[in-house]
Structure formats: C-alpha cells, structure tokens
Design a protein that fits this description.
Elements: E1 2-11, E2 15-18, H1 19-22, H2 30-37, E3 41-44, H3 51-66, E4 75-79, H4 90-97, E5 104-108, H5 114-129, E6 133-141, E7 159-169, E8 176-183, E9 191-192, E10 195-197, E11 200-204, E12 210-215, E13 218-220, E14 224-225, H6 227-248, E15 258-261, H7 266-275, H8 287-290, H9 297-307, E16 316-323, E17 327-334
Parallel strand pairs: 4-5, 4-6, 15-16
Antiparallel strand pairs: 1-7, 2-3, 6-7, 8-17, 9-14, 10-13, 11-12, 16-17
Bound molecules: acetyl coenzyme *A.
Acetyl coenzyme *A binds next to helix 2 and helix 6.
Length: 335
C-alpha cells in the first residue's frame, strides 16, 4: 500500500512580536537577532487564544484542501511538546474537528522533530495498520515555556500550527519514500524544559526514612539551551540524515526540488544546504516572519509554499526536523 500527501493547512496567532518589540524587554537589537538568526518577527498566543484551536484551524484547512470530511479521518497524530493537557491534546483536537466516528487520536512528543516523526508514523499506520486518512498536525507554543528575560532564548521562538493529510493510495502513487530517524539522550542536556519539584513536605517514615510526601507543587523549568552546541549538532547531523533518507529513496540531493528544514536559524538552513550542494533558490524558508515554531515549522512553511504556488504538485521535497531530545530525522516526500 502507498500513501500520499493530499492537503495542508496552517494557523498562527494574531499577535505579531517584532525584534524591536523584544528590544524593549531585553537588551537586544533587531540587528543582532536578524544577523545571527534570520528572524524578524514571530507570532505569540495571547488573550484567550489556544494552541488546540490553532491546531484545529490548521487541520480544517488541510481537510478542505483534500476535500475530505472530518468523519473520514481515522487517525489524528498531534505532534507537540507543549500540549494544553499533559495527558495529550490529540483527542481534544479530534473532538473539536467533529470527527463523529471517533478516530484514534494521540500525541507525539519529539520537540522540533515531531512533525517528521508524525509523517513517518502516518505512513507506518497506513501501510501496516489499515488506516486510510491520517491527519498529521505539528503545533507548539514555546512562548509559554521560555524565560522572557533570557535574551539568549526568548528571541528565537514563536507559536503556530500546521497540518497535512496523509492518505492511503495504490503503491504506484506512493509519495512518501525514504526516511531516517535518530535520537541521542546524551545530547539532551544542551536543550531541554526539565521537570522541577518546587516544594516538598518532608516527614520521617515509620522505618526512619525521609518521605517527600505529600508532593506539593510541580512545574517545568523554562527552556534552557546551549545555542552553540545545538548549532553544531544540527549542522553535523542533519545533512547526514538527509543523505541517508535520499539513499533509501534511491535519490540524490540533485534530484529533489525543495529542501525544507525545521525553521530554527537561517544560518543552520544555509549551512545544511551548502553541505548538500543545494542552491538557495531550492530552499524553503519563512523563518523571518515566524521564528522557530518547533513541530509546526515544517507544515507551516510547506503550507505557505503550496499556497503561494512555489511548491507544485508532483515535486519532491526533502524535509528534516531536529531539536530537543536530542532528536533528528528526515523524510523524502512528493507533494
Ligand atoms: N541580543 C544581544 N546579545 C545577545 C543576545 C541577544 N538576543 N543573546 C546573546 N547575546 C550575547 C551573549 O550574551 C554573548 O555576549 P558576551 O560575548 O558578552 O558573553 C554574545 O551575544 C554571544 O552569545 P552566544 O550565545 O555565544 O551567541 P551565538 O553566536 O552562539 O548565537 C544563537 C546565539 C543565535 C542562539 C546561536 O547559538 C544559535 O542559533 N544556535 C542554534 C540554536 C537553535 O537553533 N535552537 C533551536 C533548535 S532546536 C529547537 O528548535 C527547539
């Protein structure tokens, strides 16, 4: 059985935050941010906007493009590391979409690699599990997890959602070719949002041991990152991963129409393209307008490129995600 991408959509919050806006809250400048990262603006959830609602809007647009009814969706993969319910947002998205046949819905947590993992998981569910219409949604709100006083990280991130509908098809039409996926927990210390226990009430247990009970308030630390290490990791591992995925697909970098990387930093995108010998005219980037939107960045950039007519039906795209975990992976798809 084959699988193909048949629709895409995206949604961003209404509040736009420019580099100049940020320079009013931390010691930074438009020049520093744009030269080092390529980012000029980002969108941030505000008021009563919710990430789940953005995910639903993106998914609805993908279904409309594909002309598929929500009732015909049999799996929703919600790729997010910032769910609005720790138990997962997928079922809430399923409910709000109005999928009356109650398809399976669950979350995939793999930071900025989440969407690529979602695409590969969709293909596995279709090829091995009998699923027919799988919504893969990438949605993240890292604005809720950064320290807005830390100029080293708060300048990088934005909030967004993007979605793609992956559909079963005959093997001749197959549009999801090779893939390559990795993780390295050892490198996780370079980028994380760690769990922290704030207060505990210590008591002596009956056998003399100290009990931390009852547990009090718990929360997560703000995002912490060693930018230089993350930069080195991305530039070293992503080109290798794309080459492995291309080799599995029987292709080379010269055969692909577009390079679509997780939008983390323009200098990372340029360095990976240079290593693969892919000219900038074949590289998709919308980072300047949205910053790093984690699992949403690839479907958001894809949707923009499809809507503008840049990416055309039948074209081949090498997509790669990388980020916390550390995790990274690539897949070769036909639009
Ligand atoms: N404005 C002004 N100065 C700043 C800012 C800022 N926003 N941030 C840091 N600086 C200062 C530092 O304090 C430091 O000053 P010092 O020399 O007086 O100590 C100086 O600028 C250099 O700081 P570095 O952190 O060494 O800057 P670097 O050149 O490494 O650039 C950056 C930082 C842009 C974060 C870069 O390391 C990077 O892009 N790394 C990749 C990060 C990334 O892509 N992360 C996300 C990927 S994974 C995911 O998506 C979750």
């Amino acid at each position: 059985k084959g699988c193909k991408l048949v629709g895409c959509g995206s949604a961003v919050p209404s509040l736009k935050v420019s580099n100049d806006d940020l320079s009013k809250i931390v010691d930074t400048s438009d020049e520093w941010i744009s030269v080092r990262t390529g980012i000029r603006n980002r969108r941030v959830l505000s008021g009563n906007e919710s990430l789940t609602a953005l995910a639903v809007e993106a998914a609805r647009k993908a279904l409309q493009m594909a002309r598929v009814d929500p009732d015909d969706v049999d799996l929703v993969l919600m790729c997010t590391s910032t769910p609005e319910d720790l138990f997962g947002s997928g079922p809430q998205v399923q409910k709000s979409l109005g999928c009356k046949r109650n398809p399976l819905a669950y979350d995939i947590t793999a930071a900025c690699s989440g969407f690529v993992l979602g695409l590969v998981s969709a293909a596995c569910h279709i090829r091995g599990g009998g699923f027919n219409n799988v919504l893969v949604i990438g949605a993240d709100s890292l604005s809720r997890h950064v320290d807005w006083m830390d100029r080293g990280t708060c300048i990088l991130f934005g909030d967004a959602a993007g979605a793609v509908l992956v559909q079963a098809c005959d093997s001749e039409e197959d549009g999801l070719f090779g893939f390559d996926l990795h993780s390295d927990g050892e490198g996780g210390r370079h980028l994380n949002v760690n769990f922290k226990e704030q207060e505990t009430h210590n008591e002596m247990g009956s056998n003399g041991s100290v009990l931390s009970f009852p547990p009090r308030r718990h929360s997560y630390s703000c995002l912490q990152m060693n930018g230089k290490e993350v930069f080195r990791f991305a530039v070293r591992c992503v080109p290798q991963s794309i080459e492995l995925a291309l080799a599995k697909a029987g292709l080379s970098a010269a055969n692909i129409d577009w390079l679509l990387l997780h939008q983390a930093n323009q200098r990372i995108i340029d360095a990976v393209a240079t290593r693969l010998d892919i000219p900038s005219e074949r590289v998709i980037s919308n980072l300047a307008n949205y910053g790093n939107t984690s699992a949403a960045s690839i479907p958001l950039a894809l949707d923009e490129a499809v809507q503008s007519g840049k990416v055309k039906s039948g074209q081949t795209i090498a997509a790669a995600g990388f980020g916390a975990g550390l995790t990274w992976g690539s897949t070769i798809v036909r639009w």
